[in-house]
Write a sequence for this structure.
């Protein structure tokens, strides 16, 4: 067991980090928010970096890496609030041609466990070439142009544009329930990576601001109440990091444990870390944190989007409880 | 420890309720949030209607057009206004809830006569110019200079978080009149006519995507010295009067709104089903909502207790910090549970039929400002621990001079 | 409406406070913990103060006061962790002779909603002359000597001794379900008073210690993190105070609202305030807080006892939810 | 990012598991908590058995009787020990978990040879003498004096929170050897034989009603100078080594115990019914338990990450503070949910058939110490914010001298 990030993994992480920092500075997020929340050129470059083909076999033109690397890369994407249906496209790489190259953008909708009340809310409908729909029966492929939908004027996350549709065509069935369930767990792991990235970046922003900003004649980061707020942010980040890495490692090597259990734990704690850290980041920024200009809000809004996709927190808590119940039964059986 | 409203309170309630039942539906829906001119017209129009019906300035002196009623009648007023879904106080916020009350307490006879009746009649809109880019939690560090020149002050500086700036006629502005005094002792409180030359107002968009706030740049603005409220350099004391009002009673109607929000969430939870199971039958969600309802009841009792204590004492007490702290964090928790209940619908701020999604998604963003504005939660905790519990004050490592380093 | 404490109420509060402070200093709590957790002489004197006859009509020898006064008095009892079945005895004053005078001590057991798993745990069985049992069918009176029970060696609260009994005799029926339900709500209000007192006293202890104790060359009460902990304790105390007073006022005057709703809110927030403040008090005391000598633990342990009597927090949250649902229905009906 | 144990790890696990399956049931139940002599005999007896079977000092050097295995094998060891319900480390805690590791890192050859084998064999019990009545969070303010006199130090002072004092043979004691130096620079780390004349030990009952802790009064106790670990006045650095061990790996077995506690609570919740409804079917309670289980999984992953990082770096990192902070508060939250689930049964600390009441009620009290001992949660947050996040240090208003004012 060596749970540390390997040197190759570190290099990959740093590469994606410097790419994202270069291409998605704060000003660019503001432009994207104005301009519809998507950047096809960026998407192509992400494809070239291997974001979508990371887990594809080398023989098929992929990088032949696994979920460990994927969650690291998705954390970097999360750190800069990279827009677009990133997880859906990576999940679809072996199902749909052209995804690896960034030529075909795949989005999706998760209806597992029954649709939510109200209309379907479809993310990035104007930008996707293929829409996947996942439900308890399996996985379908829909043509976005065949969907009757109208744009939502004010989506919560300005970088995640939405359309609403009252109904969906059936589309073409791609896989059955087992495959869909597997993809859903994998998607939750990728989102956990993005959520971890949000927890990280909002802590970094808070610390940088608190060191700089002076009130009462000294940096506000010297006030113990704020120091402790940020210490708690750090703990949440580290808890999320550990769980997300463990989810990656468990998906890559089923011998080390139950992947659904590890992924549910990761999604739960990473959602909490992202939401709580983004909120704390805004609070620490004070009045400036409530402006559009300070980018903290993009991260809080994105965290909300990610929290309720591929299973919300209540659902993952129930899933964690199911695994706990199995262990409890084993314990009782062992005693008897 | 009597919670029963008096007969006259109940009579007042009955009259007000009857009037609202007619007036509110007749008044029509509010304009879009970006149309400032229409918003001013709508909000002041409603204030005018209130005034004409005798429901403006419930606890303001009669001589300025108020009703001079008790604090409990003021509570009845808030309850009924919220119950009837009456228009929000809107652009009248600063004038009615802290600028006006500060004038009543500290203004000159001339200032009161000039402004109070017009505020009540919806003829005068006020904004607030307290904070500056470098003076947020440390408000007393403000640097906007006012230099006396004959009968005027010449004011230059940069204010931020000026609510309703684009439509305001006057502003309550804090300025530094003595830069050599300790920082709390060189401040004055000015009534700033917003149409004076040298004032530039720039919108400051919030994370809501709205521009209810502005930055205000003041470049050698000549303000008549008679617009100063209170003595020169005594502005910090007056500011604290303003802040007590801002932290104390100003939230009452929002609290009642919050009770309605919770009831709407509950009605929704009782209707919404997933896999045939009502959200309300989920003990987790149901108990969270029940728990929040209990806390809201406790909060409302807390408001009644502090209103009665304030009426006995004459001014809102420092206990207002406890009310503000608890209310603002409870508001955030309620919206958080709301977002949890809505799930993906909470990602859409457009109205969806029969769903409270736009309400909750908007409020969950808006509520982020509550623990920051009018003194952050951290500042409120400092006030409680130092002024109520008597714990040692924060160390002040720098000399308390106003001049920047 | 004048929700402030009246002058008479203030005088009563101060009288009971000075009595309790005189009779139950810290050393006395330690002695009582050693000696079985009850003090019959104190009980008689509490009776003489009117603790049990507060709400009895003056014509019947009582003080003719109400729940407003009762919750104030019970808060004072809570502030000094006064031992014994105080609430049960006050509830029983008009049912059992001799209670008002302190000659008959009445304890009780609440089985509403079904018994908990495991044996019945009876408080102060060695000290009570009459045991009341409340369940969904009504209220019964039992002879403590007729109960087969054995003492619990280590009760959680050293001032609340317990006996365990596997079954109970039926006893004598005193009242039906409606009366029992009413008494249960009234009992919950009295306990809320005690819990408020615990929240108050643990804050006072924490503040006094933090002003005195020096570390790093200054009083620890000057460290912002501890100041903010105590500010939060104050807020919890004030929230609890407001809800508890409102519960008293609502029980005394049904015209001002629903007493069950007000009492559930009070029991919930007062339980939380007592438990959280007692815990914070121990934390602020540091190592000393974990000793037997510093009395903080008595209050935490008593808070646990009171939290789960006359309805635990989950039950009162459910009850609050029921009232909320009624208001939601009214709202919907008003719109329709 | 590999979580798979190596083949040799798994071989080690299989052997250990097989041995424990025989040894644990044969060893019998622990004595009562108040019988100190029996507790020493029991705890050291188990340590002796571990030693004989080759399971003492998993990561200690071979020359002192250890196994010199990897940190991952150490984790395997903790997992299996907890899984088998083996006796608690008990009176061997200080010697095995921080005194011993400190000697390995900083002791002289003679000190290591003298103590380490005896600690591993269960022949030597250690206690800790760090804190003092006026030196808790501010440990470096300690006042216990050690004056050099020939080959001895003459030690006088008052220590508190000395765990296992009544049965200890030696103690790790911090003393002040230079009262004129800045407070962190005049401290030395001594091995104190607990049978020296002038030592008085008084039990300090905890809120559990137990006396696992003592106060130690030292009155001119002559300690040979060769018992000093490290250089004179370099004790603060060595203390930090000790504290890293105390905060880092010392909690691993408790975490696994906590996983078992949660499983026991779950088994109980699945069985217990009220009005015919299983507690487990209550979504509120079930999700709380599920959520706690997820957090425990995350915690265990965090431990693995920090163990692997520490093995690469050689010493536990400051990140140990994050593990300690999260673990201790999570432990309290788990016990809190346990108490909620138990209801009235949690008021009884005697065992009730088929119920985890005694376990949970005891642990919920015991857990109160976790956020205080080995550095309070507040101290851990200071460490994280200052040493990891680089935020400004707390202002130190007094001169950092050791002498009391």
């Amino acid at each position: 067991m060596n749970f540390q990030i390997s040197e190759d993994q570190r290099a990959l992480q740093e590469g994606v980090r410097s790419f994202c920092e270069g291409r998605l500075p704060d000003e660019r997020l503001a432009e994207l928010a104005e301009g519809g929340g998507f950047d096809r050129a960026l998407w192509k470059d992400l494809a070239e970096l291997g974001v979508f083909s990371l887990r594809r076999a080398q023989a098929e033109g992929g990088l032949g890496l696994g979920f460990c690397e994927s969650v690291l890369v998705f954390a970097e994407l999360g750190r800069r609030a990279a827009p677009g249906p990133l997880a859906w496209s990576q999940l679809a790489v072996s199902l749909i041609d052209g995804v690896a190259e960034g030529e075909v953008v795949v989005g999706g909708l998760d209806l597992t466990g029954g649709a939510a009340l109200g209309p379907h809310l479809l993310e990035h409908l104007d930008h996707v070439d293929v829409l996947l729909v996942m439900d308890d029966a399996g996985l379908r492929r829909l043509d976005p142009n065949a969907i009757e939908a109208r744009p939502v004027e004010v989506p919560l996350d300005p970088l995640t544009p939405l359309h609403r549709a009252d109904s969906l065509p059936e589309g073409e069935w791609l896989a059955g329930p087992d495959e869909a369930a597997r993809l859903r767990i994998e998607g939750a792991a990728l989102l956990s990576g993005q959520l971890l990235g949000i927890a990280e970046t909002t802590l970094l922003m808070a610390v940088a601001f608190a060191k700089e900003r002076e009130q009462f004649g000294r940096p506000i980061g010297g006030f113990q109440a704020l120091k402790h707020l940020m210490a708690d942010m750090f703990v949440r980040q580290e808890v999320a990091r550990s769980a997300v890495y463990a989810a990656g490692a468990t998906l890559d090597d089923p011998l080390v444990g139950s992947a659904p259990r590890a992924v549910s734990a990761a999604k739960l704690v990473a959602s909490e870390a992202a939401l709580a850290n983004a909120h704390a980041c805004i609070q620490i920024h004070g009045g400036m944190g409530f402006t559009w200009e300070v980018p903290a809000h993009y991260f809080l809004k994105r965290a909300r989007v990610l929290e309720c996709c591929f299973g919300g927190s209540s659902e993952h808590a129930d899933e964690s409880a199911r695994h706990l119940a199995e262990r409890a039964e084993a314990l009782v059986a062992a005693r008897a | 420890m009597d919670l029963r409203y008096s007969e006259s309170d109940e009579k007042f309630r009955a009259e007000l309720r009857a009037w609202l039942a007619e007036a509110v539906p007749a008044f029509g829906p509010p304009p879009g949030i970006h149309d400032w001119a229409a918003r001013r017209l709508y909000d002041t129009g409603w204030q005018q209607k209130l005034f004409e019906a005798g429901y403006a300035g419930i606890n303001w002196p009669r001589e300025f057009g108020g009703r001079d009623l008790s604090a409990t009648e003021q509570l009845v007023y808030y309850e009924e206004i919220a119950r009837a879904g009456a228009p929000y106080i809107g652009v009248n916020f600063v004038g009615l809830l802290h600028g006006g009350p500060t004038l009543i307490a500290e203004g000159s006879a001339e200032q009161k006569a000039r402004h109070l009746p017009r505020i009540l009649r919806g003829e005068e809109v006020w904004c607030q110019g307290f904070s500056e880019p470098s003076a947020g939690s440390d408000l007393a560090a403000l640097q906007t200079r006012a230099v006396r020149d004959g009968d005027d002050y010449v004011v230059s500086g940069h204010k931020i978080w000026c609510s309703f700036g684009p439509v305001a006629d006057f502003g309550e502005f804090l300025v530094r009149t003595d830069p050599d005094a300790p920082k709390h002792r060189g401040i004055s409180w000015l009534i700033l006519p917003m149409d004076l030359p040298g004032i530039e107002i720039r919108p400051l968009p919030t994370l809501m995507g709205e521009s209810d706030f502005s930055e205000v740049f003041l470049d050698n603005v000549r303000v008549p010295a008679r617009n100063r409220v209170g003595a020169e350099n005594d502005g910090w004391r007056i500011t604290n009067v303003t802040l007590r009002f801002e932290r104390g009673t100003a939230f009452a109607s929002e609290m009642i709104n919050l009770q309605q929000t919770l009831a709407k969430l509950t009605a929704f939870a009782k209707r919404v089903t997933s896999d045939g199971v009502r959200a309300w039958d989920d003990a987790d969600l149901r108990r969270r909502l029940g728990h929040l309802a209990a806390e809201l009841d406790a909060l409302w009792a807390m408001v009644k207790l502090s209103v009665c204590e304030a009426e006995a004492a004459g001014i809102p007490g420092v206990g207002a910090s406890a009310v503000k702290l608890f209310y603002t964090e409870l508001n955030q928790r309620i919206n958080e549970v709301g977002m949890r209940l809505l799930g993906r619908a909470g990602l859409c701020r457009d109205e969806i039929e029969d769903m409270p999604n736009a309400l909750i998604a908007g409020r969950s963003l808006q509520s982020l400002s509550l623990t920051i504005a009018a003194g952050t939660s951290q500042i409120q905790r400092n006030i409680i621990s130092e002024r109520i519990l008597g714990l040692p004050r924060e160390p002040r490592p720098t000399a308390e001079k106003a001049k920047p380093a």
